[in-house]
């Protein structure tokens, strides 16, 4: 059953990713990416990461991609605004060939890795132990991330402001 | 059996990362380039979570949470930048935004 779920979710993740780089309209690409993100959320659940499963759906698919689609529609992109990409298929094909050796190298390095073990703790990946770890061992990175979000917020406001010149 | 081997997760993560890299190098649409970067983030997240399970450690999962927060910050700045650039150039072609890196030739 889990094997079937894994194959099903990975298939949709790869299909969505492939559709994302092939489709011409940005809105179609974004919708295709949502399929990938939801399938990845399912893979997180298979890996006992229940908190990340929720975060992936709420923050990634829910907030970031929704904001993204909102901006694409807000800009009212017309066909004449899109770049012309006559050699797109050729570039994708050639790029795919170039990336094969890199893939083989990494996969060969991981080939001999042993199987995943079942988690020791019953509540592995749930919000309580994860939060305890986050606020003790990872407190400084957590605070730095909040600072980064503040900087990004101010930066976005500065960018989007109307020019006064 | 497949689901319990680390290799199958590495395979999926690597393929997703390659597709993302392919999108960055082969496409000109600035939105698709951005989404490809997000896809690469997600491939790395999958690898982190799989390795967290493999090592029975929370470090990988926490790093994935931090990456998601960074991606959210990046999305805010990127979208503000794109709105400004689109208003000026009326184009989504990455080549139209060369002014960001060099002096614009009138």
Automatic annotation (TrEMBL), chain A:
<dbReference type="InterPro" id="IPR042106">
    <property type="entry name" value="Nuo/plastoQ_OxRdtase_6_NuoJ"/>
</dbReference>
<keyword id="KW-1003">Cell membrane</keyword>
<dbReference type="InterPro" id="IPR001457">
    <property type="entry name" value="NADH_UbQ/plastoQ_OxRdtase_su6"/>
</dbReference>
<keyword id="KW-1133">Transmembrane helix</keyword>
<feature type="transmembrane region" description="Helical">
    <location>
        <begin position="30"/>
        <end position="51"/>
    </location>
</feature>
<feature type="transmembrane region" description="Helical">
    <location>
        <begin position="6"/>
        <end position="23"/>
    </location>
</feature>
<dbReference type="GO" id="GO:0008137">
    <property type="term" value="F:NADH dehydrogenase (ubiquinone) activity"/>
</dbReference>
<keyword id="KW-0472">Membrane</keyword>
<feature type="transmembrane region" description="Helical">
    <location>
        <begin position="138"/>
        <end position="160"/>
    </location>
</feature>
<comment type="similarity">
    <text>Belongs to the complex I subunit 6 family.</text>
</comment>
<protein>
    <recommendedName>
        <fullName>NADH-quinone oxidoreductase subunit J</fullName>
        <ecNumber>7.1.1.-</ecNumber>
    </recommendedName>
</protein>
<feature type="transmembrane region" description="Helical">
    <location>
        <begin position="57"/>
        <end position="77"/>
    </location>
</feature>
<dbReference type="GO" id="GO:0048038">
    <property type="term" value="F:quinone binding"/>
</dbReference>
<dbReference type="Pfam" id="PF00499">
    <property type="entry name" value="Oxidored_q3"/>
</dbReference>
<dbReference type="GO" id="GO:0005886">
    <property type="term" value="C:plasma membrane"/>
</dbReference>
<keyword id="KW-0520">NAD</keyword>
<keyword id="KW-0812">Transmembrane</keyword>
<comment type="function">
    <text>NDH-1 shuttles electrons from NADH, via FMN and iron-sulfur (Fe-S) centers, to quinones in the respiratory chain. Couples the redox reaction to proton translocation (for every two electrons transferred, four hydrogen ions are translocated across the cytoplasmic membrane), and thus conserves the redox energy in a proton gradient.</text>
</comment>
<feature type="transmembrane region" description="Helical">
    <location>
        <begin position="89"/>
        <end position="111"/>
    </location>
</feature>
<keyword id="KW-0874">Quinone</keyword>
């Amino acid at each position: 059953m889990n094997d079937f779920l894994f194959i099903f979710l990975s298939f949709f993740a790869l299909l969505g990713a492939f559709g994302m780089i092939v489709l011409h309209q940005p809105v179609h690409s974004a919708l295709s990416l949502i399929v990938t993100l939801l399938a990845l959320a399912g893979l997180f659940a298979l890996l006992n990461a229940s908190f990340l499963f929720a975060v992936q759906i709420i923050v990634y698919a829910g907030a970031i991609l929704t904001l993204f689609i909102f901006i694409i529609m807000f800009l009212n992109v017309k066909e004449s605004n899109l770049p012309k990409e006559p050699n797109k298929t050729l570039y994708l094909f050639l790029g795919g060939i170039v990336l094969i050796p890199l893939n083989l190298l990494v996969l060969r390095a991981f080939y001999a890795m042993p199987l995943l073990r079942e988690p020791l703790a019953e509540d592995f990946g749930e919000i309580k132990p994860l939060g305890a770890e986050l606020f003790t061992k990872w407190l400084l990175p957590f605070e730095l991330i909040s600072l980064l979000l503040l900087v990004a917020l101010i930066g976005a406001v500065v960018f989007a402001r109307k020019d006064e010149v | 059996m497949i689901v319990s081997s680390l290799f199958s997760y590495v395979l999926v993560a690597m393929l997703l990362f390659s597709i993302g890299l392919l999108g960055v190098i082969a496409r000109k649409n600035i939105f698709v380039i951005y989404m490809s970067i997000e896809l690469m983030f997600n491939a790395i997240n999958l690898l982190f979570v799989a390795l967290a399970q493999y090592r029975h450690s929370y470090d990988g999962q926490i790093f994935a949470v931090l990456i998601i927060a960074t991606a959210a910050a990046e999305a805010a700045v990127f979208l503000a930048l794109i709105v400004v650039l689109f208003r000026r150039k009326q184009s989504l072609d990455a080549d139209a935004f060369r002014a960001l890196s060099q002096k614009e030739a009138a």
